[in-house]
Amino acid sequence: MNIAEIIFLLIKSWTLIGALVALVFLTVGIDRIDEDAQGAYAFRPLLIPACLLIWPLIIWRWFVLETGRDQWPKRHKPPRESHFWVAIAFAVAIPVIMLLGFSQKQEWPADFKPQKISSEQEQSQ
Q1: Fewer CB atoms inside 10 Å of the end CB: C or N, the chain?
Q2: Distance in angstroms between the alpha carbons of the first and the last residue of the chain
Q3: How many Å apart are CA 98 and CA 86, to the nearest integer?
Q4: Does any domain span residue 90?
Q5: Which structural domain, as residue segments, surrounds residue 23?
Q6: For position 49, what pLDDT does the model report?
Q7: Measuring CA to CA, which residue among 61, 55, 47, 69 is closest to residue 13?
């Protein structure tokens, strides 16, 4: 078995497990953890691609919500003070980096000569 077959087998296994998680979660689980999703069946097929890819996160989040260990007030805290200073640093650094990049003069090598890629017949058309 070569590396390509192993990678293909891993991808196939990942999506198969994701399909099983999507089937169980979208039929049973979503109604148990989100009361707004009860009876809303039209949007569930739209969630299938996400379930195929991030099924470990879905299982973990489902477990946290089912066991009652979710601490939702902590998720809504305002940003930390350091976020403000990081945003200021990015707001200054990004334009400086762009200006430095644009200010650098690029020169072609002296011995560089352009070559025709198309034939004479293609150019006359």
Answers
A1: C
A2: 52
A3: 18
A4: no
A5: 3-75
A6: 93
A7: 55
CB atoms under 10 Å from CB of 49, counted, come to 11
Tokens representing 20 are 């099983």
For residue 60, is pLDDT > 80? yes
- Burial status of residue 30 (CB atoms within 10 A of its CB: 0-12, 13-18, 19 or more): buried
Q: How much is the average pLDDT of 84-98? A: 93
The residue type found at 32 is R
Is 105 a member of any domain? Answer: no
pLDDT category, 73, cuts 50, 70, 90? low
Band (89; pLDDT cuts 50, 70, 90): very high
∠ Cα 59 65 69 (to 5°): 115
